[in-house]
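Write out the bound-state structure for 2-oxoglutaric acid.
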Amino acid sequence: MKELGMKLLELLALSLGVDRLHYKELFEDGCSVMRCNFYPSCQEPSLALGTGPHCDPTSLTILHQDQVGGLDVFADNTWQTVPPRARALVVNIGDTFTALSNGRYKSCLHRAVVNKYKERRSLAFFLCPKEDKVVRAPEDIVRRDGTKQYPDFTWSNLLEFTQNYYRADEATLHNFTKWLLSSKQQTL
Ligand SMILES: O=C(O)CCC(=O)C(=O)O
Ligand SMILES: [Fe+2]
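---
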């Protein structure tokens, strides 16, 4: 999974017009995690969600879902089902990669719904940088864009925010940035 994630990062770097290996150093000794999600069937699926709407705070998510289905993405102003496909993986951009691309790649708002009849499982691999390395968009991109969209941070800063202060949703990165800047100001 990590190898696949690293290859995807090379493709993303190329698409952004930066050196293919630009993101390698940040991730090669990173602290990625794999999570297994289990969603029991639910008598009232219209009243419950398996996982509420959120963007993954991590960099890239590589997801395998079983054949039951339940993953939705918010695109074109509406929730759209991502139908399960045997032998296919779903790749999501996460908030950290949004920052690493100076906002050019947007993290993807998604959720998991439940159903009345079948339990569901999914397996998510979250590619994360090493905790103390600085997350910063490449100079090249910032120069071309004319502004730097996000302050420098470490993965451990964002992890602290999402584990202790804030439940990930669609506005995590925005609120994290505000929190980071105000906590930096307090330590001045
Ligand atoms: O189960 C799914 O399809 C989505 C899970 C998810 O969004 C997550 O683990 O972050
Ligand atoms: Fe997610």
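---
The pocket of fe (ii) ion (ligand 2) is lined by residues 54, 56, 110 (CB under 6 Å).
The chain has one domain: 2-187.
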